[in-house]
Amino acid sequence: MHVVQLGKYYPPQRGGIETVVEGLARGLVRRGHEVTVVVSNDCPRDADERIDGVRVIRVARRALIASQPINPGLTRALSELSFDVLHVHTPNPLGALAALVASRGRPLVVSHHSDIVEQKLLGLPGRLAHAALYARASAIVAATPLHVRYSAMLRRFEERCRVIPFSLPERPNGSPAPPILPSGWLERPLALFVGRLVHYKGLQVLLDALAKCPSLRLAVVGSGPLRAQLVQKARDLGIEQRVAFVGNVSDQALQALYSACRFLVLPSILESEAFGLVQLEAMAAGRPVISTNLRSGVPYVNQHGRTGLLVPPGDAAALAAAMLRLCEDDALCARLGRAARLRVAEFGEESVLDRWVELYAELSAPAEAVVSA
Predict the structure, then answer these.
(1) What pTM did the predictor assign?
(2) pLDDT tens digit sequence for 138-147
(3) Which of 52, 115, 310, 369 could form a disulfide linkage to 293, CB 3.0–4.6 angstroms apart?
(4) Quick check: 152 and 115 in contact, CB under 8 A?
């Protein structure tokens, strides 16, 4: 079976969707399937390469508007491929339009990662493009039942929605004392944030909360446009000595940080945070999670009182109280961490891959039967 996956980007560009696409593509190749990933390049030229058995076509990017890459050659690149299933990852309005042209009646699967949130320029056109794509799709897949419950777009097409969770790809083991932290940092409790430094991640709220937790230090992993603003905010709050902005790190260094921290904090304030794959990464290391009770899949992954704590989005006082609670209660922290590690087993890579292969086979079987007849 030849599966084409259409996304915005592919590693080494990193993000939640990119991690999901990479894990699924590599898993399908391990199972003996042919996989082509079509994405945007980060420069104005085409590229065609093979990574771990996955063919990756990066289409020249001519512009970037409100985080949407503009790729005039995207439809052509898709149309030149012969495939059994086209799998589109959204939000990606221009990708949705290209998929509508290129699918040509063949099975079309959509992975709905999140609704379009806070997009003034492309909001309405993007939602219209997604609605047209979803109306054509053979199946629409959400990562949790909460996505279907809370998304107005998914409720419109609920009869064709399926739930297949994101899986946690295997990562290399790290040492328990990462050298990227300042000397002596592990002598006090360490909170960890992992993600892009953008507005919806709620880092401004996290820094306000940290100012109320004098015994706690924070490591911030990731890069993004708000870095300078966040560094300045830490200075203004007088907590710059307790915050380490370590930037992007290797997988091994990240695993070391998960091992070293007391808990992960995911303080996102908007439903753009649709799942929070970093929650699973921390939970796999036996660490509890503090996240926000968004109308998305985030509270499905991190279950309040079982694997971590949930707080209202944007509430610095509630976030500080939760962080202090996990700093001061060793027994609670340990209990949540043990349950978190067990929870991760429900998102096993191979079992999730089984469900994708079954869905692809189900959708492509009628077309194959017609051809053979």
Answers:
(1) 0.80
(2) 999 999 999 9
(3) 310
(4) yes
